[in-house]
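FORM 12-B: Structure-to-Sequence Request
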């Protein structure tokens, strides 16, 4: 399956209008991604925020229609991205649900811990019909177009709508469809993961400083090493153990470093970090 940005993103959205309700950090990243990937044009995107000042700023900087009226923003949209904080997702959806039925709009929620069933029920309460909903879990590198998003579809989403949802998120990085039961695990790995990797980068750089490098140089070496190693895994599609072995010459320096990592419990620590974060994601979702 194609999981990364390609030219096929361009022109995939054939509908009239995409609404982003709650255009904050993630919403703005999506607008910028959609525009730069050619997924949608400025005239097709309409967004809402809480404050008029932010709406004005978004209008000025991106040239899109931006306001504070969620219902008007959602009106006539084929796709509505719900990007408010999780505590507001259901009330805001309830507020604008009436606008969704006419075009049978698809709602894509990025709100952590809000299930497709909760979203479907919120729409059903207001319209009497099941809504087409998709739940997406992006991560912060989406802000620079290097995100990893996993998406789970609800019961009424067509194959064509699921592809539109996935391609929307391809405009801010990689995107995969998963079953909803895996979203807590996804949260523990790719949504919390950037924080784990920042700690790895910080520690690698600290090691560089310890052996005499300037902090600035050490940080650049560490960060680009992580970028390069990640890209090697994705682009060569080799198992990381094989790539590791290729760096590790007999009686060389890398094997000594690896021994330290094994003694320090790096593998177990990372496995436990992902597991604990995934369990916590389930607790926040009330499971
Ligand atoms: N940031 C991430 O990396 C990330 C990753 C995965 C999932 N998510 C999810 O993405 C969602 C948004 O997170 P974020 O980091 O983008 O938050 P954010 O930057 O705080 O953005 C939230 C936006 O919602 C707007 N808003 C608040 N109340 C509203 C209302 N009643 N109607 C319409 N808009 C309203 C805010 O407007 P003002 O700016 O005017 O206050 C703001 O623009 C959350 O549900 C979070 O779980 C985020």
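FORM 12-B RESPONSE
SEQUENCE OUT:
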């Amino acid at each position: 399956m194609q999981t990364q940005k390609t030219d096929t993103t361009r022109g995939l959205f054939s509908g009239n209008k995409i609404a982003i309700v709650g255009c904050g950090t993630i919403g703005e990243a999506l607008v910028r991604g959609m525009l730069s990937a050619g997924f949608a044009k400025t005239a097709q995107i309409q967004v809402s925020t809480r404050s008029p000042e932010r709406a004005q700023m978004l209008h000025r900087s991106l040239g899109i229609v931006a306001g504070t009226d969620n219902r008007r923003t959602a009106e006539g949209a084929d796709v509505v991205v719900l990007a408010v904080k999780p505590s507001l997702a259901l009330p805001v959806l309830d507020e604008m649900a009436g606008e969704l039925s006419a075009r049978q709009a698809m709602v894509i929620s990025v709100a952590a811990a809000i299930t497709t069933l909760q979203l479907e029920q919120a729409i059903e309460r207001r319209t009497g019909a099941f809504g087409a909903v998709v739940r997406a879990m992006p991560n912060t590198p989406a802000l620079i177009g290097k995100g990893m998003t996993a998406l789970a579809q609800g019961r009424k989403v067509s194959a064509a709508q699921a592809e539109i949802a996935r391609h929307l998120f391809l405009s801010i990085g990689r995107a995969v469809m998963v079953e909803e039961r895996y979203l807590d695990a996804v949260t523990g790995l790719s949504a919390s993961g950037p924080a784990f990797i920042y700690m790895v980068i910080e520690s690698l750089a600290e090691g560089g400083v310890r052996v005499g490098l300037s902090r600035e140089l050490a940080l650049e070496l560490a960060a680009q090493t992580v970028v390069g190693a990640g890209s090697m895994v994705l682009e060569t599609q080799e198992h990381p153990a094989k790539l590791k072995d290729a760096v590790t010459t007999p009686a060389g320096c890398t094997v000594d470093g690896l021994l330290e990592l094994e003694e320090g419990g790096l593998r177990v620590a990372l496995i436990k970090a992902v597991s604990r974060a995934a369990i916590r994601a389930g607790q926040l979702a009330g499971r």
